[in-house]
Amino acid sequence: MAQRKVILLLSGEIASGKSTLSKRLEEKFGFKVLKTREVLRELATKKLAGKIPNRDFLQKYGEELDKTDDGKWVLEAFKGAFSAVTTEGNLYLVDSVRISKQIEHFRAAYSYSVYHIHLLASPKSLESRFLHRDEFSSVNESEVKQLYYQAKSDYTESRVSLLKEDADLAIDTDLCTKDDVLIRVASFFKLLAPTNNQLVDVIVGGQFGSEGKGQIAAHIAPEYDCLIRVGGPNAGHTVFEEPEKHVFHLLPSGSYRNQNARIILGPGTIINVDKLLEEIVKYKIEDEFSRRVTIDENATVIRTSDITKEQKIKKTIGSTGQGVGFATANNILARLKADDQHKAKHHPKLRAYVGDTLEILEQMYQSNRRILLEGTQGTGLSLYHGLYPHVTSRDTTVSGCLSEAGISPKRVKNIVMVTRTYPIRVGGTSGPFNSIEIDFDIIAKRAGLNGGELKAKEKTTTTHIDRRVAEFSWTMFRKACELNSPTDIALTFADYFSVKNRSARGYDKLTTETRQFIEELERCSGVKVSLIGIGFDYRAVIDRRNW
Which CATH architecture has domain 6-189? Predict the structure, then answer.
């Protein structure tokens, strides 16, 4: 919504839901609220020389004021409360108006900025809601009923329902939940975020994982207001930091580089609770004053039994044995037993972090905040599109990551697909490459690198076992492009083509062979190779982006 000024006049019978709506509009959208009941109470207290008036007196006193100035006292109170109405803010609410003259005075003063919403409900619902108010929890029911009927017998109150005919929007609260009422009012004023603003950029891997997504994500993370990660702890993303590298198994890789960003673990995340809490503490992601991390209440928690079962069979397909596969399977099967005890919302250690991540995302969309979604593993490991059965337990493509995070495809602006110069897989029985398998001695010889150093470095981040390596697969690259539709390619490990690339501080400083390879990647993908990893330090990314 543009900076259109709104003065919302709320009407409705007693217990129709006005106070609830008023409070939620104030909390969620920042409406400045004038409560006529409080205005009345203040005026009546003065009249009674300090004595606190009861409900009956307030109703009668309100009618007296209406007769005295034809209902203009509400407008005057509004002007007094918001004298800077023409310069500060643009959303105001009056809770509530009770006669048509009060509305007419506002329309005369503020014309097209004034909107009137009326809430209604059946007599049975109104009475029930009144009887069950918290304020009457310790009062005898017959006394509460007496209060209700006394209030309903008031002349003005008996005519409030007629204001429905004047309203710009009338809502039958018998037919809606409290959330529905809020959504309908917010929609009426166009306060909800547009459903197609493209504020999300996504990073995914194009091969079998370990493409260097962590380093790319950390490089661009400072540009975002919110960092999201999906997947599970079977993927470790490594980020260069001094004095020692950071390894993130569950948190987004930019969590440390960008310490102002909100951090979200989406509903599709599979969580090892101890590992997650260890990361939060180790990298000082959050303290008692900063509540940055929010875990969706429906994220799945890995049980000890999941890890035990997976450890027993991990060699079959080169699994990392973190329990992610069994936890995912349990999540599917548990629903048949109506069991949700494995969800984050039930874990006592996660209580401080659990929240509604969709609501946070909506707030981000509403305020045009940029969001970075970091996928894990690689497209070649997708449960549906990888080399089955040597795959992981989830869809690792951009579509799968968006689904796990709870983000619509229409929100996406940029998709960065990260690909290595030489793809790797976990050592052992992890499956084929779709290209010729080689070893790190061959790469070291081609690039002028130290073979021993290379092999020591090329161990899996999570399980610390040797990696296998192969020639670049153009077939797999093209397939990954089809599945992910990247807008940008990030090529990592360019130093594996030549050690000379480690000192390149610009595209033109890369070796001729490297630039030719990049040009071929661009021909095959149809998009620019805009990020190039040349090693592992702060300055090891050549950034050619135009966004």
Answer: 3-Layer(aba) Sandwich (3.40)
